[in-house]
Specification:
766 residues, eight-stranded mixed beta sheet
């Protein structure tokens, strides 16, 4: 059985293979270094632009301020994660779209400044595309305008959309309007258009949504830390000014949105106050006219001073009654607003209510509504977070309404008690005329309306101040700034990587080439595949001749044949062992070439050598040696009366070497080779010659050669570099393990002629 192949990599063999292909390495390094230099020249350095924003924290638990069971419910819902919400807002498509629109980033303008030097310009661009504003909101396809313009403003224009040219090399005079399937676009020359040089420009036009989507892929945003409320923003760009302007604009748009959301509650309160003040103004005027009419009708000029004690008591009771009715009115208005289904997800106006718990509950409810508005602007329908907020809002609205109703009933009861006390006090003033009491009642109604009116005026002013002093949510920690060092590798780093790639590419290509070809490439390949001893190797002959051996020949091929001869003599044990079979796996491996020149090499030793052509299916010896003889081996085997001398031919170019040609191709070659005539022939030939070289059929195609194993002393299996496949080469091991050919040795044919390796041989059968 064959021994187990070593799993170690033969480093020396690899190095030898690489040395044979040194031009590949030189070319690969040159190509990669050239590509590296070109890339270093063309690429623009990328800079990191960064900005940091601190998110101002507010009470994110809208139920916590209500205390008790409501507070516990708030902690159950856990209304936290405000920074996470703001992160999604600041990175939202709508914010980036507003920044794109503000900075006009949906139009990208490039100008060629020289060979392989195209730059993006953000101002002073020579050519621009004018697009209707309405189209930019709906345009879904990017259009690329390539313009080559002369100083006289004659231009060649190509317009591409979806990788298809919709306008190709149109010659126009700027300005010019193009009608396309996507709309009308006007190509204009700006004031920066040069008057003395050509312009080669590219303008990319896309809709706001398309530009925002592309830009979102370039932006990087993250929450700096789980314990921090800072959002870090960044973009890598070859244009630092553009990057800084973009990040600052995104922060500005985010703060504008935050201020608008904060002002929404105050605006609702201001509208509510204006409506109530207008109503109370009419009520107060009506009450004053009624008092004036009452005085005129009853002839009253002033109110008599009551007794000191009763007056002070009445005044105290009236003050409490006024305050109770004011609070009752505020609570009634608030309850009506909450009960109205049209206001289900609106902010509750917050005029002053003396009940601190209700004030805190209203404020918490409004905070929750603001969070819902913020989430609804970016969330899709059916969003689970939005549904949870709706559930919280609905539950809290019902609790608030119940709390306001209870407070209202409490104030109504207190007012009734105060009225009863006041009625008792007034009853004691028996000396006060009935008209005076009626007058005081009307005056009290006027005072109530006046107090409410003044109170609402004060709240209206406070709301106006709040609107004027709104602060943004995002506090800028670091305005956009650019890191000094460019990103990526410098020229030296790029060249170093290209050098490594240049050195690594040839081994990969060689490996892929060897794998795809599935053929032996070197002697080392043969050694890795088979355990059969390698008798020698023969380099490719440049002479073009089949016979390359003579006494004076000193070429690499001739010397390798001499080395092969020496190794063969070590295998054979004279004088009895002298017959050598030469075979291969497939035609084209060079077995006949090896057999002819091996016989010639042995003949140079002064030995009598016979070359026998026993590949009777496809004979080649006559062609190789340019010999024409009427009879051959097949004639001898078919005619028992024919003598050996009739088929032996003298080789005129090789002294001491005779040849037996194959003869005509028989109809039954297999049966002919197993006949006893073959044994008789070789018994006789052994007495006549020192060495007999037999050129046999390929063992990978027919079994003829195996039938001749009985007359052989040793066998040579010829493989050819670049021709013999690896599976065919493995056939040598199979033949050797099964002992189908005696003393099988391998000869590697077709190796490079640059250098000869040392000889390797084996003794006997293994």
């Amino acid at each position: 059985m064959a021994k187990k192949k070593s799993e170690f990599i033969d480093i020396k063999a690899l190095l030898d293979d690489y040395l044979r292909h040194w031009p590949w390495f030189v070319i690969s390094v040159i190509v990669f270094m050239g590509m590296g230099l070109l890339y270093a020249k063309v690429k623009k350095p990328q800079y990191a632009v960064r900005a940091n924003v601190l998110i101002a924290q507010e009470d994110s638990n809208p139920m916590g301020a209500m205390g008790g069971e409501m507070g516990a419910l708030g902690s159950l819902f856990g209304a936290k994660g405000a920074v996470d919400d703001e992160f999604y807002v600041i990175s939202s498509h709508s914010i980036i779209r507003k920044a794109v629109k503000e900075l006009d980033l949906n139009r990208q303008r490039y100008v060629r400044k020289g060979f392989l030097n195209t730059v993006q310009v953000f101002e002073d661009y020579p050519i621009d595309v004018d697009v209707p504003e309405s189209m930019l909101d709906t345009l879904k396809t990017a259009l690329v305008f390539k313009v080559k313009a002369k100083p006289d403003r004659n231009a060649k224009v190509t317009i591409t959309a979806l990788n298809k040219k919709i306008v190709k090399n149109a010659e126009v005079q700027l300005p010019h309007t193009f009608s396309t399937p996507y709309g009308d676009f006007s190509l204009i020359a700006t004031p920066a258009f040069p008057a003395d040089e050509d312009v080669n420009s590219t303008i990319v036009v896309m809709g706001y949504h398309h530009a925002a989507e592309d830009l979102a892929g370039e932006l990087g945003m993250s929450i700096a830390s789980k314990r921090a409320n800072v959002i870090s923003m960044g973009i890598n760009t070859p244009y630092p000014d553009f990057g800084e302007n973009l990040l600052n604009e995104i922060v500005r748009q985010y703060n504008i949105r935050g201020i608008d959301e904060k002002n929404l509650q105050a605006s609702k309160t201001a509208d509510f106050l204006r409506e109530r003040i207008a109503v109370l103004t009419g009520d107060l005027s009506s009450t004053e006219r009624e008092i004036q009419s009452y005085k005129e009708h009853n002839g009253l000029i002033g109110v008599d001073v009551e007794a000191k004690y009763q007056t002070e008591k009445r005044a105290a009771i009236e003050a409490e009654l006024i305050q109770a009715e004011v609070q009752a009115e505020m609570l009634k208005m608030t309850a009506d607003f909450i009960k109205n289904p049209d206001n289900a997800y609106d902010l509750i106006p917050a005029p002053s209510i003396e009940n601190a718990g209700l004030q805190a509950g209203i404020q918490s409810f409004n905070d929750l509504v603001l969070r819902r508005m913020q989430l609804a602007s970016n969330a899709k329908p059916g969003n689970i977070s939005l549904r949870r907020l709706d559930e919280q809002i609905n539950a809290m609205r019902e609790n608030l309404y119940a709390s306001v109703q209870r407070a209202y009933q409490t104030n109504i009861g207190a007012a009734a008690d105060l009225k009863a006390k006041l009625s008792g006090t007034m009853g004691r003033l028996g000396n006060v005329p009935q008209q005076e009491r009626e007058f005081l009642d009307k005056e009290r109604q006027r005072q109530i309306k006046q107090e409410i009116y003044l109170f609402l005026l004060q709240k209206q002013e406070e709301t106006s101040i709040m609107l004027a002093n709104s602060t943004p949510k995002g506090l800028v920690v670091d305005e956009a700034y650019t890191l000094n060092k460019p990103l990526g590798l410098g020229t030296k780093g790029i060249l170093a990587i290209c050098l490594i790639l240049g050195l690594c590419c040839p081994p990969v290509l060689l490996y892929v080439r060897r794998t795809l070809r599935n053929r032996i490439e070197t002697r080392q390949d043969v050694e890795r595949i088979t355990d059969a001893p390698i008798l020698g190797e023969i380099s490719t002959s440049r002479s073009g001749k089949h016979l390359v051996i003579d006494a004076e020949e000193t070429s690499s091929t001739a010397e390798l044949f001499r080395l092969l001869r020496s190794n063969l003599l070590f295998v054979l044990t004279p004088p009895n062992e002298k017959v050598v079979l030469v075979t291969s796996s497939t035609p084209g491996d060079g077995k006949s070439f090896i057999a002819v020149n091996l016989a010639a090499t042995l003949a140079l030793l002064g030995k009598r050598v016979l070359l026998v052509g026993m590949d009777i299916r496809k004979p080649r010896l006559a062609e190789y040696l340019n010999i024409d003889h009427p009879v051959g081996l097949t004639n001898y085997l078919a005619n028992p009366g024919m003598s050996v001398e009739r088929i032996i031919v003298r080789e005129p170019n090789i002294e001491n070497c005779d040849v037996i040609l194959s003869g005509p191709v028989p109809p039954n070659p297999g049966e002919m080779l197993v006949s006893t005539r073959v044994d008789e022939l070789f018994d006789e030939l052994r007495t006549m010659y020192d060495y007999i070289i037999v050129d046999t059929a390929p063992v990978g195609r027919v079994s003829d050669t195996f039938a001749l194993n009985r007359i052989a002393d040793a066998s040579i299996f010829v493989c050819r570099v670049g021709h013999t496949t690896i599976p065919d080469m493995a056939l040598a091991d199979e033949i050797r393990d099964q002992q189908r050919l005696k003393r099988l040795n391998v000869v590697v044919n077709g190796t490079p002629a640059r250098r000869a390796y040392g000889y390797g041989y084996g003794y006997g059968n293994k």
